[in-house]
Design goal:
This protein has 207 residues and is an alpha/beta fold. The chain has eight helices and eight strands; from the N terminus they run ββααβαβαβαβββααα. It has two domains: 157 residues, Aconitase, domain 4 (Alpha-Beta Barrel); 33 residues. Helices cover 32% and strands 14% of the residues. It is globular and about 65 Å long. 29% of the residues are buried.
């Protein structure tokens, strides 16, 4: 998993509440278990018209926000089904940070497991960031995970809270597999001991 330390980039304003996972990545695109290739279908029903052409009114189709890496949005983001394809699609598009007043629990947890930083802030601070994001590529935001601050284009700062363990994992690029591999030596020792004491059991492959 890619480390998340300091992210500076364009933020796209999407002030909608209750954006569910089917809006993020519609069900017809869930046929793959690969984490790549889903970005082209991110927000598919909002990004594209019925004839397949881009919707010129959708924020990510506008020139200033086409390469956005931060999304500032409304409350209860990521509600609906628990599909992990939702953070996969965001990440594949290039979104590394989502800032909202609140998130659905499963989506929130899935973000951390895939290298995306979800930040929950009071609505008043979201409104400030939406205003900043509305300026497009002329006004970037900086998300500093180590210091837990968001820096605006005018020099202002907004502090945010994050669980210490999740912060550690993002800073070091550790997903569940990465955390397990940190104990590779102990796992190998256990398997060797088990093979000697219970030779009739199948032997797991060494890490």
């Amino acid at each position: 998993m890619e480390k998340f330390t300091v992210l500076t980039g364009v933020a796209a304003p999407l002030p909608m509440i209750n954006i569910d996972t089917d809006m993020i990545i519609p069900k017809q695109f869930l046929k793959t278990i690969k984490r790549t290739g889903l970005g082209k279908n991110l927000f598919d029903e909002m990004r594209f018209l019925e004839d397949g052409a881009e919707n010129p009114d959708f924020i990510l189709n506008k020139a200033a926000w086409r390469k956005a890496t931060i999304l500032v949005t409304g409350a209860n983001f990521g509600c609906g089904s628990s599909r992990e394809h939702a953070p996969w699609a965001l990440l594949d598009f290039g979104i590394r940070c989502v800032i909202a007043p609140s998130f659905a629990d499963i989506f929130f947890n899935n973000c951390f497991k895939n290298g995306i930083l979800p930040i929950a802030l009071p609505q008043a601070e979201i409104d400030k960031l939406l205003d900043d994001a509305g300026r497009g590529s002329n006004a970037t935001l900086t998300v500093d995970l180590e210091n837990q601050v968001i820096r605006g284009p005018d020099g202002g700062q907004i502090a945010f809270e994050i669980d210490a363990f999740r912060k550690h994992c993002l800073l070091n690029g550790l997903d569940d597999i990465g955390l397990t591999l940190q104990k590779g030596d102990k796992i190998d020792d256990f398997e060797r001991t088990r093979a000697m004491s219970s030779p009739w059991l199948p032997i797991a492959k060494a890490l």
